[in-house]
């Protein structure tokens, strides 16, 4: 996995900063899964077709990570529970 760069959007960093230590442990494991196999998530269709979504459990609650990737880079876009998640992803895409 040498040479892979992982970027985090300001939105992702803002959300991550608010997490508790036990939540960060689950998040880090999910990020490792995405880096090692970026196709582990589901590619979305339509106007967000270049976005992939990875679902995982964070302290008994289903959480979603939106990300983009190519062979050399992984970009973590946002992290949230399902409510309003796709709305936030579409807002990001407008920038």
List the helices and strands and how they pair.
Elements: E1 5-8, H1 10-17, H2 21-36, E2 42-43, E3 52-58, E4 61-69, E5 73-80, H3 85-93
Parallel strand pairs: 1-5
Antiparallel strand pairs: 2-3, 3-4, 4-5
Could you characterize the architecture of this molecule?
With 95 residues, the chain is α+β, with helices and mostly antiparallel strands. The protein has one domain: RelE-like (YaeB-like fold, 2-Layer Sandwich). The chain has helices spanning 10-17, 21-36, 85-93; strands at residues 5-8, 42-43, 52-58, 61-69, 73-80. The protein is globular.
List keywords for this structure.
single chain; 95 residues; alpha+beta; YaeB-like fold; 3 helices
Q: Report on the biggest sheet.
A: 5 strands, mixed
What is the fold-level CATH name, i.e. the topology? YaeB-like fold
The average pLDDT value, as a whole number, equals 91
SS-based class: alpha+beta
CATH class: Alpha Beta
As a percent range, the share of helical residues equals 25-40%
Which regions contain 5 or more consecutive residues with pLDDT less than 50? none
Whole-number count of domains: 1
Helix tally equals 3
Strand order in the largest sheet: 1-5-4-3-2
Distance from first to last alpha carbon? 30 Å
The CATH H-level homologous superfamily = RelE-like
Shape: globular
CATH architecture heading = 2-Layer Sandwich
Number of strands: 5
Order of helices and strands: EHHEEEEH
Radius of gyration using CA atoms only = 13 Å
What percentage of amino acids are in beta strands?
Answer: 25-35%
């Amino acid at each position: 996995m040498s040479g892979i760069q992982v970027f985090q959007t300001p939105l992702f960093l803002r959300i991550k900063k608010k997490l508790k230590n036990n939540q960060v442990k689950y998040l880090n494991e999910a990020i490792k899964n995405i880096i090692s196999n970026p196709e582990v998530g589901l590619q979305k269709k339509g106007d967000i077709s270049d976005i992939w979504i990875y679902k995982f459990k964070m302290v008994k609650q289903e959480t979603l990570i939106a990300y983009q990737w190519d062979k050399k880079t992984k970009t973590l876009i946002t992290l949230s529970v399902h409510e309003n998640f796709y709305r936030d992803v579409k807002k990001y895409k407008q920038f």
